Amino acid sequence: MNKLPLLKVEDLQIEFHDHSLPETAVYDFDLTLMKGEIVGIVGESGAGKSLSALAIAGLLKRHSAIRAGRILFDDLDLSNCSREVLREYQGDEIAVIFQEPMSSLNPVKRVGEQVEESLRIHHREIDRKERKERAIRALESVGLKESARVYESYPHELSGGMRQRAMIAAAMIAEPQILIADEPTTALDVTVQAQILALLKQINREKGTTVLFISHDLRVIRQLCSRVLVMKDGRVVEEGDTERIFEHPREEYTRSLIRAIPQVKQKEPAPPREREILAVSHLDAGYGKRSVKKNAATGKILTDVSFVLKEGEILGLAGESGSGKSTLARTILGLLKPMAGTITRKDFRPAMVFQDPYGSLNPAYPVRWILEEAYTGGGRIRRGSPTEIREKIIDALARVELPESFLERKPAELSGGQRQRVAIAEALIADPNVLIADEPVSALDVTVQSQILKLLADLRDKTGVSILFISHDLSVIHSLCERVLIMKKGQIVEAGEVDAVYRDPEHPYTKELLAAAGLYHM
Amino acid sequence: MVRYLGKKLLSAAVTLFAVSVLVFVSFALIPGDPAVRKLGTQATPQALEQMRESMGLTAPLPVRYVRWAAQFIQGDPGISYSYDMPVRTLLGDKFFVTMSLVLMSFLLLVAISIPLGIAHAKREGHLFDRLFLVLGQITMSIPPFFMGILVTLLFGIVLKLFVPGGYVSWKTDPAGFLLYLFFPALSIALPRVAMTVKLLRAEVLKEAEKDYVRTAYSRGNSTMMVLYRHVLKNAFIPVLTFLSMNLTDMVAGSVIIEQVFGIPGYGRFLLVSILGRDYPVVEAIIMGLAAFVILVNLLTDLLYRLLDPRVGEAG
Question: Which CATH number is B145's domain given?
Answer without folding.
Answer: 1.10.3720.10
